[in-house]
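Lecture 7 notes. Example A: sequence first, then its structure tokens.
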Amino acid sequence: MNEKSIGDYVQVILPIVLTFAVLVMGVMVLVEMEIPRLAKKKKKLRAK
């Protein structure tokens, strides 16, 4: 592989990787916000 093809490859892959990372971060934040509510609901259902 020469320098140019590596550069082209990076230009294609980098935005995809960054987009994926942003999506993962967003999902993690949503999950962390949702888990306490779901846990509270489960505890309320289990409590007799």
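Example B, a different protein, same format:
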Amino acid sequence: MGPGHLVAQAPDRAEAHLAALTPPRRTARTSKAPSGSAPSADPHGAFARPVPHPPGDLRHLRPVSARLHPVHGCTACTHLLTVLDVTLPSPVTDRRAALKARSRQAILAAADALLRERGDAQFSVDELAARADVARRTVFNHFDSLDDVVLSTCTARLNEVIHEVQTVASTTPVGDGSRSAMFDELALTLRGADLPEAITYLAGALGPLAEGNDPRAVVLAQEAFSRVADHLSGELVRRYPVADALDVQLLVSSLVHGVAVIALHWCTTTDPAAPDARAAWDSLVDRLIDSVRAGYMPER
């Protein structure tokens, strides 16, 4: 066996290998070819026998892809070869995103726990990182400063408060749709929501920021009451679609912004940890409701 034979056989073996990977084509049955006829020229023939190449004929040395079909660049050839180039998406990106989300959530949960334990935001980045079980640099990978962590935690707590107020409002019995009935429903909502705990939490967290003239603390406090008012107004409109929109807004705004006033008064005059702190809050809520209900007409 000479060297020329080895050169001629290597491409044929490669072609046979690719043919084995290609599904067989369905062909119509034909009658048996007469004896002595030339073998089929179909390059996909499963039983095609190799044809010896005459000396000097180098066509058999063309790339296998060019010899599969007579038509250069046909669909079957290009599809067969590009299958090897198909790549599946790597899950590395998804794992990194999930790890990043878990780290951020751990930092927020640690800040929430420290705020509840201490009643204020007087903790360091090192303490926060240790509680979250992350590196110090990981904290700054997610937040620009410790104040940003506190503000993000307060925003999450605010969402919980709004959800609680919505739940209480949605379970309040429906009245007849009059202004007095809507007022009674709002009064029940304010009495039923656990606002003192949330007010203590937000005041302790945002107090140092407000004392440092950080405008973000003021904006977040304003946003808190505005969002509560929006959700309460939406609940009343959902219950009473024919109610006057201006009446609803005036009613809700007077009570919610009154809550903002008594919240500030309660925080500055009452120790939230005192045994009678909740009773003091309930008394302020009753005073607010009575004042808004009766108005400021001359006493008889």
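Note on Example B: The CA atoms of residues 279 and 285 lie 10 Å apart. The mean pLDDT is 76.
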